[in-house]
């Protein structure tokens, strides 16, 4: 039992580093960038609150697990803003190595379970993962909207970018949420700046 607890606490100590990973999106009061730990907590709350907008085959408890685990790899791989141009394949390799190292800190049974959940989220094929990915894309939209553009301005984002890079994924898992959010986001891009 001591070895198991040692491994579990080693993992818990290591994931505290997620609080130091800055994202491009600011927090709601626009005082600073959001960190990845805050983002993970916030979208887990999105899942809890918006569960009634998921399909009947979606298990919200699994979605919440995915959302709490999905960005842990950023401790080693860093955050990659969706509107930034980057080598997606190279970043995926870094994230996979990070998942191996970080989840590998846990006892073997938990390491396998958490790694499988992370892999399922990344693949975005199961109903749970599709809904989780939708929420992961919605939250930054609303954060940026709340602060008058936030990282959209930094990355010269257009409504077309939002529709193609974000909207397609959100609509796939949460069409009602996408309709609601898009109706609020679109006026930002049509207003003179």
Give an overview in words.
- A two-stranded antiparallel sheet has the order 1-2.
- The protein has helices spanning 2-15, 36-49, 60-69, 74-77, 88-103, 108-123, 127-146, 151-154, 159-173, 175-190, and strands spanning 22-26, 33-35.
- It has 193 residues and is mainly α.
- 67% of the residues lie in helices and 4% in strands.
Write out key terms for the chains shown.
2 strands; single chain; 193 residues; 10 helices; mainly alpha
Strand content: under 5%
How is the largest sheet built, in terms of strand order? 1-2
Rg over CA atoms: 17 Å
Q: Termini separation (Å)?
A: 60 Å
Give the topology string: H per helix, E per strand.
HEEHHHHHHHHH
Number of helices: 10
SSE layout and pairings?
Blueprint: H1 2-15, E1 22-26, E2 33-35, H2 36-49, H3 60-69, H4 74-77, H5 88-103, H6 108-123, H7 127-146, H8 151-154, H9 159-173, H10 175-190
Antiparallel strand pairs: 1-2
Short description:
The protein has 193 residues and is mainly alpha-helical. 67% of the residues lie in helices and 4% in strands.
